[in-house]
Design goal:
Blueprint (H helix, E strand, L loop, with lengths): L1 E3 L5 E3 L2 E3 L2 E3 L33 E5 L6 H12 L3 E3 H11 L2 H10 L7 H13 L7 E4 L5 H13 L6 E6 L2 H9 L1 E3 L6 E3 L18 E5 L2 E4 L14 H24 L3 E5 L4 H11 L11
Parallel strand pairs: 5-7, 5-8, 6-7, 8-13
Antiparallel strand pairs: 1-2, 3-4, 9-10, 11-12
Helix pairs in contact: 1-8, 2-3, 4-5, 6-7
Length: 293
């Protein structure tokens, strides 16, 4: 009583995974998906590129880890959309949409936007990608509740995440990086005074409009209304407090994804190219070809 799988090997009709009796192609009790959870052997899954429509990826890392930069490169490499949740939220606020107006009431008071609003924003964006489309998300989830909400949404679509990439960067490296960071407060583009300075006449990597010098030494994205600047919370002492909070909040999220066999730890220290090669290697894509979007 066996069947042939994609490898041509005989497999039993019913399998026991994590102590649960399960028949392939039926919803698994632990995941709600036809895809069984990965056995907890300590080995990481590497079938991400085989996902229909491209892999479904999440990037997690401290502020200044380069999540946005690496997510954009990964999206271009794999031909999948980059879903930058922070930029999506800022766009909703600028456009004055009902969701943006709700979010702004919290942001104006220095409060976190509630999970319900962020989850709704993410689900709407992912739902607009089309059936079974891959993606790479950064800036989300930021809590186990958000991670669970993402899983529920994907299960309703008959999908699940392919992998979660965790960029690990020492705190003092983050402090040094953020001390030189320059951002656009409107589109969210990130530059660095020495490693990646903004230059007049070049295109902004976030809004893709030309960077103009609107006054001596003052640069601004053509489509945005405010000059590029250093963020007030990038001061070293503030960054260290933010990192302490980040480490406290990220532990349960990492544990949640590690238990699912989805977590890939990636050394985020080094050049942009070095980190990108490590990400590709973690996904089993070190020598893989680029895909067209």
């Amino acid at each position: 009583n066996g069947r042939r799988d994609g490898t041509g090997l005989a497999t039993p009709v019913a399998e026991r995974i994590h102590g649960v009796r399960w028949r392939p192609h039926e919803p698994h009790p632990a995941t709600g998906s036809p895809e069984a959870p990965t056995p907890r052997t300590g080995r990481q899954r590497v079938e991400t590129v085989a996902a229909p429509g491209g892999p479904r990826l999440v990037l997690i890392g401290p502020p200044g880890a380069g999540k946005g930069t690496q997510a954009r490169r990964l999206a271009a490499k794999l031909g999948i959309p980059h879903v930058d949740v922070g930029s999506l939220l800022r766009a909703e606020v600028r456009a004055g949409t009902p969701l943006g107006q709700e979010a702004e009431r919290f942001l104006a008071r220095g409060l976190l936007v509630p999970d319900e609003l962020v989850n709704r924003l993410v689900e709407r964006r992912l739902g607009a990608l089309g059936p079974r489309r891959g993606f790479v998300v950064d800036g989300y989830p930021r809590s186990v509740a958000q991670a669970e909400a993402l899983d529920r949404f994907l299960r309703r679509e008959g999908l699940r995440l392919s992998a979660v990439l965790h960029l690990r960067v020492p705190d003092e490296v983050v402090v040094d990086r953020l001390a030189g960071r320059i951002v656009c407060p409107d589109c969210g583009a990130v530059f660095h005074r020495t490693a990646n300075p903004p230059r007049a006449g070049e295109r902004c990597p976030a809004c893709h409009t030309i960077i103009r010098e609107v006054a001596p030494g003052v640069l601004q994205c053509e489509a945005c209304g405010r000059p590029l600047r250093r963020r007030p919370d990038d001061q070293p002492e503030i960054v260290r407090r933010r990192l302490a909070i980040y480490h406290q909040e990220v532990k349960p999220i990492l544990s949640y994804y590690r238990q699912q066999g989805l977590l890939r730890d990636v050394d985020g220290e080094g050049s942009e190219d070095e980190v990108f090669r490590r990400i590709l290697a973690a996904l089993g894509l070190a020598d893989g070809p680029s895909r067209r979007a």
